[in-house]
What does this fold into?
Amino acid sequence: MRIVSLVPSATEILFALGLGDEVIAVTHECDYPPAARELPHVTRDALPHDLTAGQIDAAVRARTDQGEAIYELDVEALHELAPDLIVTQALCAVCAVSFEDVRAIAEELESRPHVISLDPRTLGEVLGDVRTLAEATGRRDAGVALVQDAAARIDRVRLAVRDRRRPRVAALEWLDPVYVAGHWTPQLIELAGGLDVLGMPGEHSERRSWEEVAAAEPDVVVAMPCGYDAARAHAEALLFREKLAALGAGEVVAVDASAYFSRPGPRLIDGLELLAHVLQPGAVPEVAVANPLVVEL
It folds into this structure.
């Protein structure tokens, strides 16, 4: 099967299912696993690369208000690649090429590829997408094994933190302006032994004011700017050090959102274990990923 992935999370799922040899092209943002970086790109970013967080937000709003895409798709390359399957999403207009655009282009391709759209809002739906891709690609057993492993790791964390005091947590998905994380992140926080004081499970991330975040009285603030790694998240948090200090939280940490929180794929479970390490020190001592960066206020 010849597969084109237009979503970084789908790329991760496909490789986790053992389909790396069948993935023939990906997006310019597909950087995991490392083998994905060697594949041809069929997308490019329509925004400049040197924008600040506030400028990115403004540019995204302007383009979406005008009906313009954030990402551009290389249609000519798709014709040449002749895929059998294209995996995309319709959950977030900022995260990938428009689903409607992909579907329209697929109808014009000589190979007539099947198009699968992954649109998870919860952790359960993320695992459901693993099953969907496994069934569509003939990797049902691999899908079952991947989901079972994820479920076992989730249960280990949940049981390890169940009798501990739950700190109040504010997960900030963007800092200029402030967005609180939604979708699966509030679930991850709860499973990790925290109480999300702002986000709503399964709902879109929401714009809030710094005053609203302060009023929620968080004990822990997790800076997880969407698409940023830990170093960039930490640098972004330092730009807003005074705002973060005014929240009154006892701890502010910056995490690698791009790897462990923004993308609804297998590494969300790594994100869960990372959160448990932050929120409930000692409960889950072995963390397979790098520790978060503490923001000194």
Observations:
- The chain has a mean pLDDT of 90.
- The CA atoms of residues 86 and 231 lie 32 Å apart.
